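Work Package 3 (structural annotation) set out to generate three-dimensional models for the target panel prioritized at the project kickoff. During this period the team completed the workflow that converts sequence records into discrete structure tokens, so that structures can be stored uniformly alongside our sequence database. As a representative example, we reproduce one entry of 282 residues exactly as it appears in the project archive.
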Amino acid sequence: MNNNNNQNNNNNNYVTPEKVDLSKVTVNQNDNMLNRERDNIVSATIQANQAINTNQARDVNNAIKVKKHNPIISFIIVITLFALAGFLSYLGYRLISKYITTSDAKYTTTTTTTTKANPFPKYVYNREIARKFQNDNMVLILAPTQKDFSYHYILFTKNDAGIIHKEEGAYDLKNSSLGLNSTDGNYRLFTVNDNYLFCDGIELEMADTEMKYYQYQDDASSKLLLINGAIKYELAYYYDGGVHGLHSYTEDATSITLDNGMVFSKQGFTVENNGFTFEMGS
């Protein structure tokens, strides 16, 4: 029988275990050795638990956690996130720019900035018209260019009562300067700035009001009657070839009369004297 079992075990390469029957084991309940071993185990467990330092255990656990979070790995993760955010931002910018360029191009509005030209220098250098400059005490009028004479002027100073001094002469106008040569031999040099004429502390600004002039020209001669019509500062300048001068005058609805007796009859925008018709200048 046993031979058959051994043969079966050898053939199957395993041993069939037998169930332990605890009823066959004799345990002495009063065995002092077992009690001592049990007491030793309990005592050792209590001592081990009492020996544990809570703070030290917490520090150890934290240290383990720190070691688990490698700083190099954290740095790589942060750099990767920043790179990803930058790439996404750049991609969004490119997409928006492309959309604006392609989709909204037909709605593009071009804004043109226009700078208003300064009228003063243009006014000063325009020799085809009469030009007037003044301040509280002085008035300067530049006559327009005529065929047989050029660059005449009248200048007077004034106060509240009226004109206290007057002169006439020829002027020389160049870039940034205006020279006045009076018939009395006086000379003044004005600097042409952007907004006024300047000479020895005197500033004269553009003042093209209360002034008018009439011109006659043909192939042989030129004539000019220039009127400053400001109240209390009335002054006329007449030129006819070699005859020219400053005059006081009176004016009504039909005529202009100079203090030398010359009368110019008024016909709308013209005046007439001795058969010559003078056209009003612009």
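The CA atoms of residues 214 and 281 lie 6 Å apart.
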